[in-house]
Write a structure and sequence with these properties.
The chain is of the alpha/beta class and about 150 residues long. The chain is about 45% helix and about 25% strand.
Amino acid sequence: MLQLRQILVPVDFTETSDSALSYAVELARKFDASITVMHAYQIPVYGFPEGAYITTAEMAAQISNAAQMRLDAILESQKVAGVPMVGLLRDGVAWEEANNVAREIKADLIIIGTHGRRGLARALLGSVAENVIRTAKIPVLVIHGPRDEHGH
């Protein structure tokens, strides 16, 4: 029997991750499951010729605070859904952190939105969803966001 107790939804604060979360909420309701909403961000680090790396603590705090506010807003907007939901903020590579969190919370399923970008945009951005699908140890449900047909 399929056990769905813990669903992980990595978000990037786009319409696409909103769709993934809505889907997760419907599923969580049916299975009486909990949802962990996570966002991973990376602090930019600047390199200098002498090999020193620097990132300002202030910048790191700003990025972290902005992400936390957006995560809190998502949780707040979903309260009416009546599904147990927690938010997690991680500093790191998004797909790696998704796998780490999935392991930590013993997730049964990852639901992730994909942007359906094509061509150059996709090559440059690399796809978080694609990496999660390739490396996750548990099932991944992919929700397609609005596709950009014009390749812009």
